[in-house]
Amino acid sequence: MPGERLTVRGTSEIGRFPGAAPPTRVELTIHHQGEKKQEEGGCRRWFRKMCPCCCKRQNSTSYDVTDKVEFTKPPTPAPLIMEKETNETKLSVCSVDLLSSKTGQNRQEHHTDLYHGDELIIRRGQTFQMELELNRPFNADTDKLHLDIKTGSLPMVSKGTHVIIPLVEDLEDLRWEAKIVQENGNKVKLSVNSPCTAVVGLYGLSVTTSSLKGEDATTHNSNKNIVMLFNPWCEEDSVFLDDEEERKEYVLNDTGRIYYGTEKQIGARTWNFGQFHEGILEACLFILEKSDMPPSGQGDPVNVVRVVSAMINAQDDLGVLVGNWSGDYSDGVSPAAWSSSVEILRKYHSTNGTPVSYGQCWVFSGVTTTVLRCLGIPARSVTNFQSAHDTDVSLTTDVYFDVDMEPIDHLNSDSVWNFHVWNDCWMARPDLPPGNGGWQAVDSTPQETSQGTFRCGPASVNAIRSGQVYLKHDTPFVFAEVNSDKIYWQRNLDGTFSQIHSEKKAVGHCISTKAVGSDERADITHLYKHQEGSEEERIAVETACRYGSKPDVYSTPMAEDVSVEVKMEGEGPRMGADAQLSIVVKNMSSQPRRTTLHSQVAVMYYTGVLKNAIKKEQMPVELLPNEEKTIEWLLPYQQYQNQLVDQAALMLTLSGRVSETQQVLANQTTFRLRTPDLNITPVGEAIVGKEMAAKITFTNPLPRTLKGVVFRVEGLGLQKGHEVVVGDVGGHSTVTLTEHFIPTQPGPRKLVASLDCKQLTQVHGVADIVVVEQ
């Protein structure tokens, strides 16, 4: 269990360090010249040893000896002959100081001073210091000393989970070793080195002392543990990241931004990762322990990331979060209400691994970022807009119509999510061909199984970009999410299907993450795919599809001279008002064209699963040569007000056939109804230890009452997360909440709030507060 002190035993005798001071205590016995030394039996020798005062030698002069007898040079009488015995006091360890203070050299140099608690938290591949207090000064000529560290339930030297650390004269890189760097009386300071491949986790420490004579060793168990983390600052560590600003962002930043919505209406919410918060490191180590991954595997970041991907969801291993896309969260917390990983991880740990309800993709991603950064693996949350979910490994997103061009719902198992959030993590990939290190995609949202478990990744982003889907792990699935073509099929009269249309730019848009050093959005689409339509991008798609279940899908090119596109004005429709879009139909030929567009708008979960259609209509369109027509499309508020689900997302599907050429027109556009933000205004000076306030204001955008409104408020270094039950909020009413709190940490801080109720989700806000020392 986290925090439990491991009992470490061992009597191995390894290594010594020469050059220490000579012995300072001796036992001196003087015999008179000519006297014969009396022999004594074994029993008497034993009894005399146990109680010398009761059983003194006869005919000899004896000097009482204790552990603290100081050596003084006696006079040398001529008639006497002296016999020295080097029976020195046995060396033992009185105490161990791991020098684990947050402000001390160890945690400052290892970039672990932000973690809560007073354990020694260090990063592998880097030296650290400790001090030993001995019962007497260390003598390198006669004393031996070594360290033992152990991790896991069954430590083994062969597995790297029991490490015997010898004393050496000079430290060398890439191995466990210790060197005495300072001696002061009975105190010894050690510098200890660890290899860059060391197992990550919780270690128990013991110190063993003995003599060169081979006497029985004594072992002292430290009452504090050592936590070993990955080291992005160490060039030899496979998670090394060669940019200090990126290390600050992807390892040390405890807040971030997660993007959601649609590609034309990108929303952003602040997320508290809180990887240094009280109890979070313990929770992360608990997750590794609960995963049943052998501790010996915890030195490889590929293994660790793969296990974390599986353990963040509870689908098949009682992991951290239960996924729920039903809309009913009455027995838990709505996914949209979370704005921090802290409460989730602490709750999971405190209940001994009871999964927390509920999460969706951005929550899974936020918690994954927290765990990976906490363990020392650079990580970020990444949002892909128009994210495909390929269910049959075809590496295409397939849409099926019947002979009348109506969607065949039971066949349309592939879906395109408005957005999907996963993670990138940074590491070398020595298990793959050169060039596939760097950013790796990992997804903790339970979608498809990988080797029998709901997990995904790590998949090389470079391999995804080039279509090398045969490289592990789960590269085909991620490739389909970002760069699959959308293929439309129509059922023939004989029951077979023919490809009638393809969209080559339908998925993988505006792939986004928080920028380094700012709250701006960084578009990283170019890392995942070549420029849309370029020869490199087409080659990547066709390369990938050759390894899919429909390798011949590109054998029939289609001729097209009429296009249909849906456009949105500004930031798009707002919740509580009529939704208006523009349908643009363009004739690119020198001949007239006629078609009838079938339109259907359906309420949609953000995962791309349709709930139900709420409006259908047909629109005849006649186009002159090279003409472009714009059709205004309207969805009244009354038609959607009682139909919406999470994210307030809708999908407009258009289909039709050009009469003159039989060309098929098809388009699917997703959009969301934008919700208002919470307005947070700080009140008063932000000073450590001094009370201040913040006003949170919300205006209901709907003409109806919101039932059971709850605010959730949290600010790392400002106040702990908590709920505020507001109750009902009338139509178009404004509610103001004033929060009073006392900042506990200086520097830039973020106060984050979210609103949760059944009728309205994804309402949140953030205030930046700079706290100064008193």
Brief descriptors of the model:
about 40% strand, calcium, Immunoglobulin-like, six-stranded antiparallel sheet, disordered N terminus, six-stranded mixed sheet, Coagulation Factor XIII, Chain A, domain 2, globular, mainly beta, about 15% helix, about 775 residues
Walk me through this protein's architecture:
The chain is mainly beta. The chain folds into 4 domains: 93-229, Immunoglobulin-like (Sandwich); 244-547, Transglutaminase-like (Coagulation Factor XIII, Chain A, domain 2); 562-672, Immunoglobulin-like; 679-771, Sandwich (Immunoglobulin-like). It has 12 helices and 41 strands. Strand 15, helix 6 and strand 16 form a beta-alpha-beta unit. The longest helix has 15 residues, at 361-375. The radius of gyration is 35 Å and the shape is globular. Mean pLDDT is 84; it is low at 1-40 and 46-86.
Radius of gyration: 35 Å
Low-confidence stretches: 1-40, 46-86
Outline type: globular
Q: In total, how many domains does the architecture comprise?
A: 4
Helix/strand structural class? mainly beta
Which fold name is given in CATH as the topology of the largest domain?
Answer: Coagulation Factor XIII, Chain A, domain 2
The level-1 CATH class of the largest domain? Alpha Beta
Q: What is the residue-mean pLDDT, rounded to a whole number?
A: 84
Distance between the termini: 39 Å
Helix content: 10-25%
Percent of residues in β-strands = 35-45%
Sheet of most strands: 6 strands, mixed
Write the SSE topology:
Blueprint: E1 27-31, H1 42-50, E2 81-85, E3 93-97, H2 105-109, E4 120-123, E5 128-134, E6 143-150, E7 162-166, E8 177-184, E9 187-193, E10 201-211, E11 218-221, E12 226-229, H3 244-252, E13 255-262, E14 265-272, H4 280-290, H5 301-311, E15 321-323, H6 342-350, E16 356-359, H7 361-375, E17 379-389, E18 396-401, E19 415-427, E20 438-442, E21 449-450, E22 453-454, E23 459-460, H8 461-466, H9 475-483, E24 485-491, E25 497-503, E26 509-514, E27 521-523, H10 525-528, H11 535-545, E28 562-567, E29 579-587, E30 593-604, E31 610-623, E32 628-635, H12 637-640, E33 649-657, E34 664-672, E35 679-683, E36 692-699, E37 706-715, E38 719-729, E39 734-741, E40 747-757, E41 760-771
Parallel strand pairs: 4-12, 15-16, 18-24
Antiparallel strand pairs: 1-2, 3-5, 5-9, 6-7, 6-10, 8-9, 10-11, 10-12, 13-14, 17-19, 17-26, 19-20, 20-23, 21-22, 24-25, 26-27, 28-29, 29-32, 30-31, 30-33, 33-34, 35-36, 36-39, 37-38, 37-40, 40-41
Helix pairs in contact: 4-6
